[in-house]
Amino acid sequence: MAVDKPIPRARKVPLSELVSLLAPTLGQEKAAEVVERATEELAVGSGPFDRREADMIVDKLAGAPSIVGIAARIVRKRASFTDEPAPQSPVPPSAASGPPSNSPDKRADIVNLLANGIGKEKSREVVEAACKKLGVTSLGDARTVNRVLEELATMPGQVGVTARFAKARFALRK
């Protein structure tokens, strides 16, 4: 006789949670702006939202042909709006955090991710500056790469925008 798993209870999702899921890629202000605009367009109020409403908001944003859409598609892939705990990855935690520290430096990969938006020379310059500021000597693991990309994403103008795109593309590679 098979034992049925209990159906997870849907929980209410506050507006701030939807914003915080998008903020690492879009920045806090832009994330708040796009979530609020989507809630207005869908006429779902200002939250908290049930699972269906939260999914509708994320789906609406995922359809955007910009970094907003990319960020929302990542959120849609990773977020769960139920009380059920997130599924555990079958990969051991040490492997999930990226390659071991003696792996090849990913500096060239980051430069290439940024090069389409700001050029190769500027990419090298800003990656080196961010590494120096953070005290990073090697970009051998995913956690360190993310730290550098997060630092670059805080920069104003084209560098910050390009770094947020690069961060999303790097996350999709995992």
SSE sequence, one letter per element: HHHHHHHHH
Oligomer: single chain
Number of strands: 0
Q: Give me the number of helical elements.
A: 9
The end-to-end span amounts to 39 Å
Model description:
The protein is an all-alpha fold and 174 residues long. It folds into two domains: 64 residues, no CATH class; 67 residues, no CATH class. It contains nine helices and no strands. Helix 2 packs across helix 3 and helix 6 packs across helix 7. The longest helix is centred in the last third of the chain and has 17 residues. The radius of gyration is 18 Å and the shape is elongated. The relative contact order is 0.12. About 12% of the residues have low confidence.
Short recap of the structure:
This protein has 174 residues and is an all-alpha fold. It has helices at 15-26, 28-42, 51-62, 67-78, 93-96, 107-118, 120-134, 142-153, 157-173. 64% of the residues lie in helices and 0% in strands.
Keywords:
174 residues, mainly alpha, 2 domains, 9 helices, elongated
Write the layout of secondary structure elements.
Blueprint lengths: L14 H12 L1 H15 L8 H12 L4 H12 L14 H4 L10 H12 L1 H15 L7 H12 L3 H17 L1
Helix pairs in contact: 1-2, 1-4, 2-3, 3-4, 4-9, 6-7, 6-9, 7-8, 8-9
